[in-house]
Write a structure and sequence with these properties.
heterodimer, A: mainly alpha, MetI-like fold, 2 domains, 0% strand, globular, B: mainly alpha, two-stranded antiparallel ribbon, 14 helices, 2 strands, 1% strand
Chain lengths: 278, 295
């Protein structure tokens, strides 16, 4: 009986190792390959380690491959959207959860229903609206879109958080004569710091990785984001220059990589919170 | 304090920005999409009401039907892969390793946060054949399995397989994680009691453990189904629908109809089709799972 258990246990552990290897090796290969010089691909095996740190790939990707422009555009649109999402959703979630009015439950349902909406459904109308008001081919179209679509999940997470803040805390402040705005800003906001970290992280990931919105609203090369720019770059130079292609792919991933290494617990909690309650 | 919490002006100030943004950018466009689907042409130029004509056109549109079939094949393969393999991984994590659980979780979830375009660019190079062998062909070559070397992304069947494979690869971690969290919540006592009663292995799994995590399994299933029905990023970035129509999905057809051919009304009807597909599948899964509860 014990023997059988041991064998199964070893098979299980092996299976896990194989799984983890499959999940991580492509990324390792990517990172290593991005440091290879132009000749190393043709002459050496794909599995070989790079001869040195051929950083020129990154310089080429950044300058010639225009990743500097794409990176800048992504940073501007995503960070602006993050600011809007936080500034809009925190008060709204507070009003829905803590303040007393008849339509609060309706409002909550309205926002929650947005979590699972296929974005394809709004793509055409938004495109036409933005075209009409002249926002096509401007980063504003992305900022507005990312912000609006970030509200449902943010409000969902925040209302959960607000539920756990005891009303006594608010009472104490209000009895002392605070206006509700002061109380909100000085007492409530500091308490939800953890929720804010989750929201910022998750929304950053979603929007940094966005393809469909940036593909639809932006065609001007100078305004492309990292993802659409990467597609353009690999399309143009795909066959020939492997080193810079790998480097630009890595550049496209760098913020998410850094974020993950720094905050993986937060990310995991946030990404799975949307589908699992509690 | 109650009076302060009921203050209409405060409520309005707190609610309005988010509500207005959301209604204008999310809710109203959804309704417009529905309305547009009954029209034909370009708004402002020759937009005319055509009733159900777009939907009738869809039913006879060979390209559309092909994309629906390809999309459904994709859904079957990828949902099965993501959910079943995710579940297997979660079970392995829960029962086979005592230490390093966090490390394993961190590694397996990692591909999930990567940008789809970057993953696609990576996989294109992994399966490349010219001007030089990518990772896979290179490994085959060094193992002297030259007969297996092929243009993976240039052939319909293998391109489809690579697409499915990369999307399963990317998402396994997510499902492994949520199922693992659910498994952790299954009380030790329940499992112990079942073991004492003689339940082992498969029976333990099927009759005791799986029912306990059923709600999460259903949520995971719905998530995966929805994601696969709407898939856009990965086929576009990997093969742009090719070769031929091997990886053409419904969302991509909607995109090209609307933005490459300017048929906004027709494109809207495809978008509504996707929306209804997702709603229906979600309702069906919910219905089936709640029916079983009564047994």
């Amino acid at each position: 009986m014990n023997r059988k258990k041991n064998v199964l246990s070893i098979i299980g552990k092996l299976a896990i190792i194989v799984l983890l290897f499959i999940e991580i090796y492509p990324i390792i290969w990517l990172l290593l390959s991005s440091l290879k010089g132009p000749n190393e691909f043709a002459t050496n095996s794909m599995l070989a380690l790079p001869k040195g740190f051929y950083f020129k790939n990154y310089l080429d990707a950044w300058n010639i491959g225009k990743m500097n422009i794409f990176f800048k555009n992504s940073v501007i649109s995503v960070f602006s959207a993050l600011i809007v999402i936080i500034c809009f959703s925190v008060p709204a979630a507070f009003a829905i959860e803590k303040m007393k009015w008849k339509l609060s439950k309706v409002a909550l349902m309205l926002f929650l229903s947005g979590i699972m909406i296929p974005v394809q459904v709004v793509l055409i109308p938004l495109f036409l609206i933005y075209k009409q008001v002249g926002l096509l081919n401007s980063l504003w179209s992305l900022i507005i879109t990312y912000s609006a679509f970030g509200l449902p999940l943010s409000i969902y997470l925040l209302t959960g958080y607000f539920k756990s803040i005891p009303n006594e805390l608010m009472e104490a402040a209000l009895i002392d004569g605070c206006s509700i705005y002061t109380m909100f800003y000085h007492i409530i906001v500091p308490l939800i710091k953890n929720a804010l970290v989750i929201i910022i992280t998750v929304e950053f990931l979603f929007n940094w990785n966005d393809l469909i919105f940036s593909m639809t609203f932006i065609s001007n090369l100078k305004l492309k984001t990292v993802q659409t720019g990467l597609m353009y770059f690999t399309g143009e130079k795909g066959q020939k220059e492997w080193g810079p292609i790998f480097a630009s792919t890595v550049i496209g991933m760098v913020p998410t990589l850094l974020l993950y290494f720094g905050l993986n617990k937060v990310i995991i909690k946030g990404m799975t919170a949307g589908s699992v309650k509690g | 304090m109650d009076k302060l919490l009921k203050n209409k002006k405060t409520i309005a100030i707190f609610m309005l920005p988010a509500t207005i943004l959301y209604i204008c950018v999310v809710l109203i466009p959804i309704i417009w999409s529905g309305v547009y689907s009954f029209y034909d042409g370009i708004p402002g130029l020759n937009f005319e009401f055509v009733g159900l004509q777009n939907y009738l056109k869809l039913a006879n549109d060979k390209i559309f039907i092909t994309s629906v079939i390809v999309n459904l094949k994709y859904v079957v393969v990828v949902v099965t892969g993501q959910v079943i393999l995710g579940l297997l991984a979660a079970l392995l994590f829960n029962f086979s390793i005592k230490k390093y659980k966090n490390l394993a979780r961190t590694i397996v979830f990692f591909p999930n946060i990567l940008p789809t375009v970057a993953v696609a660019a990576l996989f294109v190079k992994i399966f490349e054949i010219s001007p030089q062998y990518g990772l896979v062909n290179s490994v085959l070559h060094s193992l002297n399995l030259d007969s297996l070397i092929q243009p993976w992304l240039g052939q319909p069947a293998t391109a489809f397989a690579v697409l499915c494979g990369s999307d399963i690869w990317k998402a396994i971690g997510f499902y492994a994680l949520i199922f693992y969290a659910a498994l952790m919540d299954v009380p030790e006592d329940t499992i112990e009691a079942a073991r004492i009663d003689g339940a082992r292995g498969i029976r333990l799994l099927w009759n005791i453990i799986l029912p306990q995590i059923k709600p999460i399994l259903i949520i995971g299933l719905i998530f995966s189904l929805n994601g696969c029905l709407k898939v856009f990023d990965s086929p576009v970035a990997l093969t742009n629908g090719g070769p031929g129509t091997a990886t053409s999905m419904v969302s991509m057809y909607m995109f090209s109809t609307s933005f490459n051919y300017g048929q906004y009304g027709y494109g809207s009807s495809i978008a509504i089709f996707v929306l209804i597909e997702c709603l229906l599948i979600t309702m069906v899964v919910n219905y089936i799972s709640s029916r079983n509860k009564l047994d």
